[in-house]
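User: Can you help me understand a structure? I only have the sequence.
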Amino acid sequence: MRKIILALYLLGNTFSPWMAEAETAFQEVFRSPKYKNVRVEEVLAIDLFRLTSGEKVKLIGIKAPDDFEKPHRRVERNEYGMIIKEPISPADSLEEEALQYVQELLTNQNVRIELDAQSVDDADHTLGYVFLVNNNLFVNAEILRQGYAHLQISPPNLEYADQLREAYQEARRERRGLQNE
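Assistant: Let's start by predicting it. Here is the structure, written out as tokens:
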């Protein structure tokens, strides 16, 4: 949609007042300041997390293997209240390794979330492209690049489809994670 709006805008200034309004509206909807700097409270699955506001966000273009979700285990904490993480062992499944990777990547991090044409799924989760605020890392693509999820491009959300495909293909070439099975 953005490309269509920009193409029309570049065709001429005949409709420039209308196009300027359309581009402004686009920026307000798809680059909402609401998601410019928000904090991740908890990773619920490889492709799903909760913000400190309680809102659940699902990563666009990512499909967790077999809809894997976080196992419900008792969490061990140290004397300061910090979670004690057990090291990954060869006996751990790839899904557990992937979940731990995403938890380390996102938990308690400030992120920027960009929306696309469809911004909510059937389960009422916000759908988004996620970037770490501190280094602008594209989280959706990085999870794919590490081989920790399957690629799932679902129109109309195509804004970063090329980057996601490229990351997924890199994992396949390098036989990382799920692509090594």
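Now, to help you interpret it: The first strand starts at residue 38 and ends at 45. Strands lie at 38-45, 48-51, 56-59, 61-63, 110-114, 126-132, 150-152. Let me know which part you'd like to focus on.
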